[in-house]
Amino acid sequence: MRHPTEGVLRRLVDEPAGVSDADRTHVAACAVCLTDLAAIRADAELVGAALATPGSSAVDTDAAWARFSATPTPVTPAFRPAPPAARNRWRTAVRRPAVAALGATVLLAGAGVAAANDWLPIFQAEQIDPIAVTSADLVQIPDLSAYGDLQVVREPEPEQVADAAAAEERTGLAVPEVGELPEGVTGDPTYQAAGVLEATFTFSAAKAAQAAAAEGEVLPPTPAGLDGSRLRLQAGPGVAAMWAQPTGVPTLVVARVGAPTVASSGVPFETVRDYLLSLPGMPDNVAQQLRSLSADAGTLPLPVPAELVTSSTADVDGTEATVLTSRNGLFAGVVWVEDGVMTGVAGTLSADELLQVARGLR
Predict the structure, then answer these.
(1) Which helix (H) or strand (E) holds 15?
(2) What's the DSSP call for residue 53?
(3) Could you give phi then psi for residue 100, rounded to 5 degrees?
């Protein structure tokens, strides 16, 4: 009998009832599998210790999220029940380095010219291309408020809803249906719904000059018309189905969200893009990767922490998808864009298992 997959061994730690008797018997008698299981159990204990709050043996997911979102780690979908402080969390998160990096790359990625005073669409995500970033890059990139005024106009206000029909009624998006659940993923999912996120960014030459001075640099000459120009980012709405472990940690999440779009109020977009890439504070390797995408209209750059995650591509029913896998094997994700909608499948499963789920969505 072949050795059980790493995902099966992980479920022996998290959800032993979801593992077949045949796999249990094999692992109990296999020295190789027992060694791998011990390593996975040690990883699980390390993660549990990181999530635990002082004075409690239970996992506090809200406290864990607060610590997670305050560090330069990958941005994860926020489809989860919103705590009372959700509004302030969204306003703060948009300004944090990791989220600001994603926002900046969206603003820098599109192609086109806005030639009127009214809002004109200049970018809509049609595909995703990962760009490698380091933890140092995420810390080095200043948040968008260093270059101007960032205002959250509409908040997504994620919330848990009763069922898939309620999620669709709130958002207009159908929750993707999983054809066949991976081994060990059982039970009914919970459903989440979120509205549209809308934010505007107004470039300020004065703020940019202050940011440059703080870096000991001189601000490059500002192109005519750029000072005071505005960009508007919209993303959403979104829906998700989530299968979770008894601790509340997601095993499988299947989400669908309106792909990001960007509109401009006046200055040619290439001018904004090229100037922001030249400002002090943007890491050279990040700027170079963004410039290589500048001619690809509709390509949404996805910052990927190179030390933690590897990326590859795969076909999902004729559409190229980005596959992300953590280097420690604890989680993976698959994401792609089709017809203006971004779909993602993620969880504590192997990339192969998630691809099978992705290809079987209805």
Answers:
(1) none
(2) P
(3) -60, -35
- Name the pLDDT band for 299 (thresholds 50, 70, 90): confident
DSSP letters of 320-337?
A: EEEEEEETTSS-EEEEEE
What are the tokens at 224? Answer: 């005519």
For residue 241, give both structure tokens: 């189905």
How much is the pTM? 0.65
Token pair recorded at residue 351: 């990339």
Residue with tokens 């979801």: 18
133: CB partners within 8 A, 6+ apart:
101, 283, 286, 303, 304, 305, 306
Q: What angle do CA 262, 266, 271 make, to 5 degrees?
A: 80
Structure tokens at 265: 């109020």
pLDDT-derived band at 240, boundaries 50, 70, 90: very high
For residue 220, give the 3-state DSSP assignment: coil
Among all chains, which residue has been given the structure tokens 């690809």?
296
The amino acid that residue 119 corresponds to is W
- The 8-class DSSP code of residue 179 comes to S
**Dist. CA 210–CA 142, nearest whole Å:** 12
How far apart, in whole angstroms, are the C-alpha atoms of residue 93 and residue 143? 10
333 against 274, higher pLDDT: 333
